[in-house]
Specification:
By secondary structure, the protein is mainly alpha-helical. It has 4 helices and no strands. The longest helix is centred in the last third of the chain and has 84 residues. 15% of the residues are buried.
């Protein structure tokens, strides 16, 4: 169960990390290309999708540092979205606004790279934890098997002794009778089981 949970968390981390990679690509293309109203409007859709991904990160119950880092990325992206909306609401894009947005995109790209590095470390940690859990489960299974096998051997030995001892005694008494000792008693005839 824990391995399955860890596996789902790893899968979610990788999926959401890919979404952030898409945002990083879109931001890079926008920063390098012509900064016009149409490009910025298209970028707003990508940012909306990235916000959803970051919200999913926070819902993954990651470490407090990762949650805080995700919230910081979200705040930075929100600021960019506000500036884009302000810039595209005017009749033309001022050069100063374009430069401001490009600087913000550059900052966000660095924040995203840092966040993705942190995510990769988180994925590695989650994979190691899942492997540790799986290893512990395997060890527990082996221990349970060995304990069960030991108990089974003990049970078999106890059962065989309770049957073999009386049979051996009866066999010895029978040999004495065959050898001519007619005063020899046959033991265990009073037992209520197959031996008696």
């Amino acid at each position: 169960e824990q391995v399955g949970k860890a596996s789902k968390q790893i899968e979610a981390l990788i999926t959401e990390s890919a979404e952030l990679g898409n945002l990083r690509s879109a931001l890079s293309i926008t920063a390098l290309g012509d900064m016009n109203r149409e490009n910025l409007s298209g970028l707003t859709g990508v940012i909306d999708h990235a916000e959803e991904s970051i919200d999913k990160f926070v819902g993954l119950n990651l470490t407090p540092q990762m949650n805080q880092s995700a919230l910081n990325v979200r705040g930075t992206i929100d600021d960019l979205k506000i500036h884009i909306e302000e810039a595209t609401s005017t009749s033309f894009l001022a050069e100063a606004e374009v430069e401001k947005i490009k600087r913000e995109i550059t900052e966000i790209l660095q924040v995203l790279v840092d966040f993705e590095i942190s995510l990769q470390e988180e994925v590695k940690k989650a994979i190691k934890e899942a492997a540790d859990i799986a290893f512990a489960a395997e060890i527990a299974e082996i221990v349970v098997f060995l304990v069960a096998a030991t108990l089974l051997i003990i049970l078999i030995m106890a059962t065989s002794r309770s049957v073999l001892r009386p049979l051996t005694a009866i066999q010895n008494a029978t040999k004495r009778l065959v050898d001519g000792n007619l005063s020899s008693q046959i033991p265990h005839t009073d037992r209520p089981d197959e031996v008696g």
